[in-house]
Specification:
Helix content is 39%, strand content 22%. It is an alpha/beta fold. The chain has a domain of 97 residues. Strands 2-1-3-4-5 form a five-stranded mixed sheet, with helices on both faces. The termini are far apart.
């Protein structure tokens, strides 16, 4: 093995937090998602499942990719089982390119479908993983500020 290129100042902590966040992989939102989960929700070192569209992958919105949906569910089953997850946080965000491509229209016109998908994803998770705590949020953009708003599930 080659010598280390970089050594993190973060130390390994073997304690599990038992939380997972599912959100869009758009890196422009990542630091805000981390800050929200760490500081507001109190889940440091949470597991991450970041894919384009985030919670949309649990909704079967686009039936042409049914095999991909099943793969996502299998990966989530692994995480819930092996990481002893008790809490899953679903986050959708304003202006998501996944929804723009899927639905067309403006960011504002996609928001109702995004919120509905968070609700559907929560229902799927609650049926598949009885007793798991699921919560949903919409990340909104106002100028340069990102805010997080609860979605009633």
């Amino acid at each position: 093995m080659k010598p280390a290129l970089y050594t993190s100042d973060h130390r390994w902590n073997p304690e599990r937090i038992n939380g997972l966040a599912i959100y869009c992989s758009d890196g422009r939102w990542g630091l805000a998602f981390d800050q929200f989960c760490h500081e507001k929700l109190g889940i440091p070192r949470y597991d991450r499942f970041a894919v384009p569209g985030g919670p949309a992958w649990l909704t079967m919105r686009d039936l042409s990719t049914i095999r991909t949906y099943e793969a996502v569910r299998e990966h989530l089953e692994f995480l819930v089982r092996e990481h002893q997850l008790e809490r899953i946080v679903l986050i959708t965000h304003y202006g998501c390119a996944f929804y723009k491509q899927l639905l067309g229209g403006s960011p504002e016109s996609c928001l109702p479908a995004q919120e509905d998908d968070v609700r559907k994803a929560a229902a799927v998770l609650r049926v598949r993983f009885l007793g798991i705590e699921v919560e949903g949020y919409a990340a909104m953009l106002s100028g340069q500020q990102i805010s997080f708003h609860p979605i009633d599930l």
